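Narrative of activities, Objective 1.

The group set out to show that a structural description can be obtained from nothing but a protein's sequence at a throughput compatible with the screening campaign. Below is one input-output pair from the validation batch, recorded exactly as produced.
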Amino acid sequence: MRVPVRDLLLTAGVFGTSAAVVWLVLAGSPAAPAPAASGAGLDSAGIAAALNDAMANVVERALPGVVSVHTERQQLVPETVLSGSLGPQVKMRTVRQPGVGSGVLVSREGLVLTNWHVVAGEEVLIRVTLHGNEEPRRATLVDRDESVDIALLAIEPRMPGETFPWMEFGDSDMMRPGHFVFALGNPLNLAETVTQGIISNRSRRVSDTLDSYLQTDCTINPGNSGGPLVNLKGELIGINTRLVIGPSENPSGQAYGLAIPSNEVQDAYERLVHKGRPRGYLGVTVDDWPVASYQWGRQPECAVVVGVDRGSPAAAAGLRKNDLIQSMDGELVRSSAEFFRRLRKRPVGESLVLGLKRGAEALEVRATVVDLKTIFEAEEVPKSVEVAGMTVRGLRRAERARLALPERGGVLIEQVGESSPLQGKVAAGEVILRVADGTAEALDTGVQEVAALVARLEECLDGGGYVDVLRAQGLVERVTLAGE
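Output recorded for this entry:
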């Protein structure tokens, strides 16, 4: 589903002069000289019209590969009932909870990629709606990779050999801040909604347990999760996964979207299709050389180690923070993206030799790639504690990876009791990010561990304050604690 070369060339030529065109259109000054459109021979109005057509062509060719995802799952909700002389009583009842999301077709056989959190749960009924067809189709869950927050669905065919339009993968490593992108999906149950923006940041924090994310200023709302982020070639370069809004009385203008890069998505897809192929793990976080260090000179070609997991193969090999990885098995490593592109291709059990520079010393270390799943499964589940009628615990690494949370901070809510003062305000599966008493000094008091949460929450329940809660699809909401 690639866009014709003619449209790509036209788009490139148009964007080369778009800044001047926008100025002319806004200024409306006939005296201002029109910019020369390289080889196009168009005036400002013609360039603007060509820009409109070229971008619309990209969207028109991409939309058939986008699906709306509708789910139904069972959920317990509190209900107040009158019970004779006992007065109002809160009881739990089971309801069918509808949900919406988005997905993208990635094969002619009807395989769909979406976020795992869109379809997660027991006995979830999944339906998808295709482009140009309002009648929902049944879909089944093929498999999922919770560490990447990716799920693979299969549309049930209506006839033997039925085929579907699909979207090709692009190379997310080639995306740079400022590149134009489109977000397509089903926000707020408004199917085939298209928004346009740029790549705001590549989120350089990259590791093999906590993936990097593409940050975009495309307008994204609940329901966009699982939908594609598309480049100007009409290729899939990311899966929109989270909308992040800062806790504020007026969150307008604060939202930005995070998308799982297509290279990570494609790797997960291939592992899910080819059953049994594990995801490799070294336990190292790398970045590119800091921009401030080379703004007056050439950027060093290497990957900088910024973190090493305890007990990981990287730690066993002797890797240290601030080591410069310059080669892998004798081949040059020029960036963090190149390092992980090569690491993704290494099978579990294979050893590799990394050429390092540590200060003035050059050395080589040998590390063995292991199965990430075994690392996550071997990790102990943090101990649960009771506080304010709730059961809470710390987060596992797989959960942090799925939620794009840092190495510390945040407490997972496992259960909210009927008598809890936060009943109806928070729910199981949500994460408390911050507890504060409302004073200016406490605004940045994050939850670093469960013990800190328990002590802080009990204080605020007595004296008043608030908690910041990470809800579904990345929304951060502030819940007020009234106090006694």
